[in-house]
Design brief:
Elements lengths: L10 H13 L6 H14 L3 E5 L2 H11 L7 E5 L4 H9 L3 E5 L9 H7 L4 E4 L11 H9 L1 H6 L5 H6 L3 E5 L7 E2 L2 E2 L6 E5 L12 E5 L7 H11 L8 H4 L20 H12 L1 H20 L5 E2 L8 E2 L5 E5 L4 H13 L15 H5 L8 H9 E4 L7 H15 L12
Parallel strand pairs: 2-3, 2-4, 4-5, 5-8
Antiparallel strand pairs: 1-9, 6-7, 6-11, 8-9, 10-12, 12-13
Helix pairs in contact: 1-11, 2-11, 3-4, 12-16, 13-16
Length: 410
């Protein structure tokens, strides 16, 4: 069986984790701090806070910005549930908008959805392909859009406009107009979950890139406190002689990363551009070459003049099928011992979000993308031979599919 996305666990990672275990420091400590510093250097933003998950990072920043009851946060209908759930956790309303054929949020749809209650826009770099950040950043700075903004908190008044909080769970290492994600808008959040390109098993990071007069270094210091129960000193700081006394300045959260997780991240980040992304691009290119031979296959856009993906998920779409036919193809592929997936079921199709009055018929591009998409295996140790096995399984499963252009399936 070819699995969908197993993490890379080689000897370098094992050795670094063992070193951490032997150090006697396994929770938040020196390696977490070093990982934060290396991530800041890597993408070129202003400061990085590592967290227990990408979801924790998103929620932390919504709460820092004062998002709460009566507020609205605009996000794509086509995303993973974490993007919507963190908004709901804060008591705010998730406002879904449609996406484009590249799976990313429509800037035109964002503009139509902005109201006086809008506090945050959350673009999602689906599959690792960056959103249109110049257009989104320009939109929130337009005078008529800024005039709609109704700030309540100190942070909102200081920014004076809608915050752009990028969900870059898939896009570490992606490039937009020469800059890496993390450095493209106000705040960016990475995920290092087990299936991500760079994994720490569980984990995430907040990339601070706020404009003046914000002091990103000071915000980082405050967020460290907020992410650890509002406690003014973490356990590592308290180990210093006479430093046991601390204060609690607010009822914060338990969102900190451990040194065990950071140890894994440090190994992977050091070789990420030169090794991990190189191999993932090779796999993307091979899929694209092979499937371009079949006119039923819609190849995802993963490179343009301005954008380069992180090659996280290869989203092939089948032309002229409905959702049920796509599901039948997936079943046949699985029977050939190849694991595939679907990224994602749009949130307006989920019971909770439907109960809020959302209807998938209002997001036709999102539904069309979802109904025809199959996510193919992409991971570091996937061999060229296995890639061809995946291609063969997909093509072989399509031969029996009763849809248009069947004569071209061979």
């Amino acid at each position: 069986m070819i699995p969908f996305s197993p993490p890379r666990m080689d000897q370098k990672i094992i050795d670094e984790v063992i070193d951490t275990l032997k150090s006697g420091w396994i929770t938040t400590g020196p390696k977490t701090k070093r990982f934060e510093e290396e991530l800041t250097k890597y993408a070129g933003h202003k400061a990085t806070l590592c967290t227990s998950s990408g979801s924790a990072g998103l929620e932390l920043m919504l709460r820092w910005f004062g998002v709460g009851e009566g507020d609205e946060v605009i996000l794509p209908a086509y995303t993973y549930t974490a993007t919507g759930n963190v908004v709901a956790h804060c008591g705010a309303k998730p406002v879904f908008v449609d996406v484009g054929t590249d799976f990313n949020i429509s800037v035109e749809a964002i503009e139509k959805a902005i109201t006086k209650r809008t506090k945050v826009i959350m673009p999602v770099d689906l599959a690792g392909f960056p959103c249109d950040y110049d257009e989104i950043n320009a939109l929130v700075r337009r005078k008529e859009i800024m005039d709609k903004f109704n700030p309540r908190t100190k942070e909102q008044k200081t920014l004076g406009r809608i915050l752009v909080l990028s969900d870059a769970a898939h896009s570490l290492g992606a490039i937009y107009k020469g800059k890496k994600t993390g450095n493209l808008t106000d705040i960016t959040v990475y995920s290092f979950h087990a299936v991500k390109n760079l994994t720490t098993a569980e984990g995430g990071a907040v990339c601070l890139n706020l404009p003046k007069p914000f002091d990103n270094a000071d915000i980082y210091k405050y967020l460290r406190i907020k992410s650890l129960h509002g406690q003014t000193k973490d356990a590592f700081t308290k180990t210093k002689a006479g430093a046991w006394r601390y204060d609690v300045i607010e009822p914060g959260y338990k969102f900190n990363m451990t040194d065990i997780a950071a140890a894994m991240g440090l190994v992977e980040l050091e070789r990420y551009d030169s090794d991990m992304l190189v191999r993932r691009k090779q796999i993307f290119d091979k899929y694209a070459r092979e499937f371009s031979k079949y006119d039923w296959a819609e190849i995802p856009v993963y490179e343009t003049a301005d954008k380069k993906s992180s090659y996280h998920v290869f989203l092939i779409r089948i032309k002229n099928v409905d959702e049920q036919q796509r599901d039948e193809v997936i079943q046949r592929i699985t029977e050939k011992e190849v694991a595939v997936n679907v990224h994602f079921i749009p949130l307006p199709m989920m019971t909770y979000y439907k109960s809020l009055g959302n209807d998938i018929s209002d997001y036709p591009v999102s539904y069309d993308n979802f109904s025809r998409v199959i996510s193919l295996p992409v991971y570091y140790n996937l061999t060229d031979k296995q890639v061809m096995t995946v291609v063969g399984a997909v093509v072989g499963s399509m031969i029996h599919q009763d849809i248009k252009s069947q004569e071209n399936f061979g």
